[in-house]
Structure formats: structure tokens, C-alpha cells
From TrEMBL:
Segment forming the signal sequence: none
Domain of life: Bacteria
Pfam families: ABC_membrane, ABC_tran
Positions of region (Disordered): 339-365, 607-628
Chain ranges of the ABC transmembrane type-1 domain: 40-322
Segments forming domain ABC transporter: 370-608
UniProt-listed PROSITE patterns: ABC_TM1F, ABC_TRANSPORTER_1, ABC_TRANSPORTER_2
Topological type in the membrane: Multi-pass membrane protein
Species for this entry: Streptomyces benahoarensis
GO-annotated cellular components: plasma membrane
Keywords for this protein: ATP-binding, Cell membrane, Membrane, Nucleotide-binding, Transmembrane, Transmembrane helix, Transport
Protein name in UniProt: ABC transporter ATP-binding protein
MF term (GO), any: ATP binding
Length: 628
């Protein structure tokens, strides 16, 4: 009954091969490198501060064995004053450490985040098809915070506490070797326990982070889909799913807490027992006169001073493990391949004068325009036995021509148009723009040549003007006015509170579907592209507005090479010729009237009566693109 209540999709790589936490964390080095001087200085300062705390017991020893034993109050005051100085110095140095790391680490976090964002922008659409948005959001927020916390705290303190423990042990052993050895006895069992703990904790930490990603996805989808949730009364099932996910996360967090409690228990208990034993043995030795009282005091206070460094190891390890998992998750995105469609690689068959346009349907040797030759496409995540969405599309749109693309719903029109701006790359065949192979053009060149308006108009949280001028580089006020006029959007835009400078999109004015569609169209035509791809651009307009847009659009189309996906005869009439997409290929090309007369499927699509189309599976609108 809960159609919506399934766990959000995890990225395919969410169970990566486990490797050591250290190796994961080392990958952060390139980001930390620029601030390494500060970080090392801060660590050195912290080591000094921490070692000062180890000098305090030695001063105590001097006070007990010297002035106290001799009954000289002046010496006691002197010693007390020195202790006070040491305390203040320690506090001051720790403060200095904080100050040293705060700013550079904020910078490291920002750099990590920028890098992730840049990567997300560059990753192909097929990557975004696969990954749940919440998983990406949580990586950019929660995980990066964990990383900054790790760099600020556990990284330094594992080093500092390690150094302090070493120095402390040396002091203990030199004070009294036998007592020192007794205190060190728990080290070996503790190390074994820690390594077992580390492996278990890392798994739990990874699971918790993934679950936070799932939760983020649900929250994001419920907020974006609030109208569906409310309109269909799905709030209870959504809440149930949310509760299930929070419950899972809570279980994982409790497991982490239990693991931490166990290891922390051992880490505190074993040294405590050792200290107790050393105290008994030491007291006996003092009573026998084999050990000075001052030495015992110094010995025990050194041991006590080491308690915090030892105790903290448990949660420092835990935090480091969490950070290692966050690093893994971070680099899963950064390591995702930038697609089959990478940089231009002008191979031998992709030279500019490779002009034959060798598709069977290309009659002439003219290389201009937009040519599809034997184009094959299969979605990367399509099941292996399914036929490819496009299998051998041959279509030639002459320079300056407007071609309408007609086909049943789900026949692959959107898919075909998505190949031109290289949102996906064909899995076979080739596409040429004015005779140049698409794969031989850089992405920037493609963007400069091709403009698109998608089925679902997406507006960003920005002003109308910014949304429209996104359509090209260096566009001016005049381009904006012209584009708005072509899309018949100038009327409603000037009626907005601040005209074209009104904020729209998610955090601004809500526009109607038709208004959004016209802004998306304005964006597509703003940059006067050579190639214009429109996916059903007028579907949301009333007949009157549609006629006005078409009249204005005709002028734009006169100067571009255009491919327009159309469902209605009125839109089809904008085009010089029409191509019918059926069964993954172009089944017929001709003028509207020719096809209407000669092609039964086309006639059916245009009049809505033909049973030929009944075989294709209807698909709810708006599930293909990932745009909203
Ligand atoms: N991102 C995707 N991953 C896998 N399959 C997809 C994806 N997008 C679309 N498809 C599948 O590809 C086929 C063609 O979809 P496409 O969106 O191109 O159809 P269309 O002709 O544009 O339909 P409509 O007229 O409804 O817009 C459909 O069967 C669809 O399920
Ligand atoms: Mg479509």
C-alpha cells in the first residue's frame, strides 16, 4: 500500500572495499598541505603544553623531598609560584593552538566542499540518475563537518597524547623502573582491544553516515514533493517511512555508543587497576625506606597526569574512524568517473572534413546542420536484456531547417534530444554539428552552439533576468528583452513586483506552469544559438498564447537549425519537416501533410485515435529527467 514508502536508492558503491582508516585519511593530505605549517606548529605547541603538565609532578617531588622535608616555607612558596606559572603557561599554549588551527581548517573545509561541488557539476547526468540526492547532500554537509572536526581535534590530539604518553612513560620508568613496568602492563591487551574495536566501529560509523544520507533524501523529497504528499494524503505513510529510517539510524547510533562504552570502560579500568597496584607496591617500598616519599608522589601524579591522554584515546580513535568513513564517502563522489563522455579526443574518424553524413537517410553530401547517423543509445542503468532506447537513428536536419520530432510517449524523444547537448553520449553511431563530430567538440564549444529547453522547466532561486540570461555567455539587457518577447513572457514579467528583477524559483515568487515554460523558452533562445533543441516547449500554454509564441518563435527558427519535440499539430506546423520516432528509429520523415496522408501511426498520434500507439507503455510525466 505504501507506494512511496520504500527506502531511497543508495548509490551502487555504498559498500566499498574496506581498507585501513589511515589510508583513507591520508587522501586528505592534498587539502591539508597548504596549511601544514600552521597545523604542525599547532601540534608542536600542544605537545609542549601537554608535556608541561608532566613537569608539574617533578616540581611536586622537589617540594616534598626539599622544602617540605626541611620545613622551609619560603621554598614551598617558591615551588607553589612555579606550579602556578606552569599551569598558566599550559592553558595559554592550548589557547594558542586553538587560535592557530581555527582559520586554516575552515579554509580546508571550504576547499573540500568546493571541490565536491565542482565535481558534482561535472559528473554526467547518468551519475545523478543513479545517486539519491540526499546521499550527495549529506556528503557535502555532515561528512565534511566530521572531516573538519577530525582535523581540528583527533588528528592533533592523537599525536599530542601519543607523545605525552611516551614522555610520561619515560619519566615513570626513570623514576622507578619496577613501578613503571607495572603501570605499562595493560598496554598490550589495550592495543589488541583497540584494533578489534576499530574494525567494528568503522562499520557502524559507515552505516550511520549512509543512513543519514537516506534520511536526507526522504526529507528533501517530502519537502520538494509536499504538494503530492498533501494532495494524496500521504503524510502518514511518509511519516512512517521517516520513523523507520530514524529508528534504524538510532539503532546504529546506539551500537556505536555501546562499542564506545565498552572500549572506554576497558581503557579507563585497566590503567586504573595498574595505578592501584603501583600505589600499594610503592607505599610498601616507601615504608621499607627503599623509595623517597617525594618520588612516590611524583610517580603517582605523573601516572594521574597521563590519565586524560590515555582515556581520550578511545573516543579519539572513534572520531578518527568516523572521519575515515566520511573520507571514503567523500572520495566515492570525487572518484566517480567523469563519464564515457570525457574530453574531446579528435580521433581519426572525427576530423572536420569527415563530411559524408553517412547515414542511410542522408541524401546529399552537404555536411551542414545536425546529423544523426546510426545513433544507438541504451541507458546505463537499463536492465541488460531490454532493447536499447534508440537503435539506429538516422536523421539529417539541414542547416537552418526546423525539424519536428513526433512519437508516442516513451518512444525516446527526450532521450534523443538529450544526446545533442551531450547530457548523455550515444552508445553507438555518431552525431555531427555542421560536419563536426560531437565528441570532437569540447563541452564549452557544444554549450556555445546548442541551446535547450527541457520538458520540465527548471527555474533557479534567482531573478527572472538571471534565469533567462543563463542561456548564454555575456548576454545583455537587450538579449533579455528580445528573449522575453519571443517567449511572450514580457507581459507577465513586467507585471511582477520588481519586473525582471523579481526573485523566482524555489525561494522566490511562484510562477504558473505556463509562465515557467515561457521563461525556459526565453532562456533557450536568449543566446541566439546555432542549434536549438526544444522538448515540447509549448505544452502548458493556452491556445491563444501558444499562437502568439509560435508567431514570435518563427522568426528565431528562421535563423537556427532546430529540433522540436511536438505533440500537437499546432507545434508541428512550426517545422519545415517532421520526423516520426518509432521503435527506437526514425520511421518516417516528411512534411506534416505528407505524413498525415501516408503514415497511419503519425495520423493516429496527431488525431489521438490510432491503435498503433496503444502498444507503447505510457509513462508518468516527469520521471525521466531528474529536473524539477
Ligand atoms: N534516466 C533514465 N534511465 C533509464 N531509462 C530511462 C531514463 N529516462 C527515460 N528512460 C526510459 O527511456 C524510454 C524513453 O523515454 P523518453 O523520456 O525519451 O520518452 P519520450 O519520448 O520523451 O516520452 P514523452 O513523450 O512522454 O516525453 C522510456 O521507456 C523511459 O522509461
Ligand atoms: Mg519526453
Amino acid at each position: 500500500m505504501d507506494a512511496t514508502a520504500s527506502t531511497p536508492a543508495r548509490p551502487p558503491s555504498s559498500e566499498p572495499p574496506r581498507h585501513s582508516a589511515v589510508r583513507s585519511l591520508l587522501r586528505l593530505w592534498p587539502f591539508v598541505r597548504p596549511v601544514r605549517a600552521r597545523l604542525f606548529t599547532a601540534a608542536a605547541v600542544a605537545v609542549i603544553a601537554s608535556c608541561i603538565s608532566l613537569v608539574i609532578p617533578l616540581v611536586l617531588k622537589w617540594i616534598v623531598d626539599g622544602p617540605v622535608a626541611a620545613g622551609a616555607p619560603g621554598g614551598v612558596w617558591l615551588g607553589g609560584g612555579f606550579l602556578l606559572f606552569l599551569g598558566v603557561a599550559e592553558a595559554g599554549l592550548f589557547g594558542l593552538r586553538r587560535w592557530l588551527v581555527a582559520r586554516p581548517l575552515a579554509g580546508v573545509e571550504a576547499a573540500l566542499r568546493e571541490r565536491l561541488y565542482a565535481r558534482l557539476q561535472r559528473l554526467p547526468v547518468s551519475f545523478h540518475d543513479r545517486w539519491a540526492s540526499g546521499q550527495l547532500l549529506s556528503r557535502a554537509t555532515t561528512d565534511l563537518q566530521l572531516l573538519r572536526m577530525f582535523l581540528a581535534f583527533p588528528l592533533t590530539f592523537l599525536l599530542v597524547n601519543g607523545a605525552t604518553i611516551l614522555v610520561g612513560c619515560a619519566i615513570l620508568l626513570t623514576q622507578r623502573f619496577s613501578l613503571g613496568l607495572m603501570l605499562l602492563a595493560p598496554v598490550v591487551p589495550l592495543m589488541i582491544l583497540c584494533s578489534v574495536f576499530e574494525a567494528k566501529y568503522a562499520l557502524a560509523a559507515r552505516r550511520a553516515l549512509d543512513q543519514v544520507g537516506d534520511l536526507t533524501t526522504v526529507i528533501e523529497e517530502s519537502v520538494l514533493g509536499i504538494r503530492i504528499v498533501k494532495g494524496f494524503g500521504r503524510h502518514r505513510s511518509q511519516a512512517r517511512m521517516f520513523r523507520r529510517l530514524t529508528h534504524e539510524l538510532r539503532t546504529t547510533e546506539l551500537r556505536k555508543a555501546r562499542l564506545l562504552a565498552v572500549i572506554w570502560g576497558f581503557i579507563t579500568l585497566l590503567p586504573e587497576l595498574a595505578i592501584g597496584a603501583a600505589l600499594v607496591l610503592g607505599t610498601v617500598q616507601v615504608a621499607d625506606g627503599a623509595l623517597s616519599a617525594g618520588t612516590l608522589v611524583a610517580f603517582l601524579s605523573t601516572a594521574l597526569a597521563l590519565r586524560w591522554p590515555v582515556d581520550s584515546i578511545g573516543f579519539l580513535l572513534a572520531m578518527s574512524n568516523e572521519a575515515a568513513m566520511a573520507t571514503d564517502r567523500y572520495f566515492e563522489v570525487l572518484d566517480a568517473p567523469l563519464a564515457e563522455a570525457s574530453d574531446p579526443s579528435p580521433g581519426p574518424r572525427a576530423t572536420a572534413d569527415d563530411t559524408d553524413g553517412s547515414g542511410p537517410c542522408s541524401g546529399s553530401g552537404d555536411s551542414g546542420g545536425l546529423v544523426f547517423s546510426g545513433v544507438e543509445f541504451r541507458y546505463p542503468d537499463a536492465p541488460g536484456d531490454a532493447p536499447p532506447t534508440l537503435c539506429g537513428v538516422d536523421l539529417r536536419i539541414a542547416s537552418g531547417e526546423t525539424m519536428a520530432l513526433v512519437g508516442a510517449t516513451g518512444s525516446g524523444k527526450t532521450t534523443l534530444t538529450a544526446l545533442v547537448p551531450r547530457l548523455y553520449d550515444p552508445t553507438g553511431g555518431r552525431i555531427t554539428l555542421d560536419g563536426r563530430d560531437l565528441t570532437a567538440l569540447s563541452r564549452d564549444e557544444v554549450r556555445g552552439l546548442v541551446s535547450v529547453a527541457f520538458e520540465e522547466p527548471t527555474l533557479f532561486s534567482a531573478t527572472v533576468a538571471e534565469n533567462v540570461l543563463m542561456g548564454g555567455a555575456d548576454l545583455q539587457e537587450a538579449d533579455l528583452r528580445r528573449a522575453l518577447a519571443v517567449a511572450q513572457a514580457d507581459g507577465f514579467v513586467s507585471a511582477l513586483p520588481q519586473g525582471p528583477h523579481t526573485q523566482v524559483g524555489e525561494q522566490g515568487m511562484s510562477l504558473s506552469g505556463g509562465q515557467r515554460q515561457r521563461l525556459a523558452l526565453a532562456r533557450a533562445v536568449a543566446g541566439r544559438p546555432r542549434f536549438l533543441i526544444l522538448d515540447d516547449p509549448l505544452s502548458a500554454l493556452d491556445v491563444h498564447t501558444e499562437a502568439l509564441v509560435e508567431a514570435a518563435l518563427r522568426q528565431v527558427l528562421a535563423t537556427t537549425t532546430a529540433l522540436i519535440v511536438a505533440h500537437r499539430p499546432s507545434t508541428v506546423l512550426l517545422a519545415d519537416r517532421v520526423a516520426l520516432l518509432s521503435g527506437g528509429r526514425i520511421a518516417a520523415v516528411g512534411t506534416h501533410h505528407q505524413l498525415l496522408r501516408d503514415n497511419a501511426e503519425y495520423a493516429g498520434l496527431m488525431s489521438g485515435t490510432d491503435p498503433v500507439t496503444a502498444g507503447s507503455v505510457p509513462r508518468p510525466r516527469g520521471t525521466s529527467g531528474g529536473t524539477r
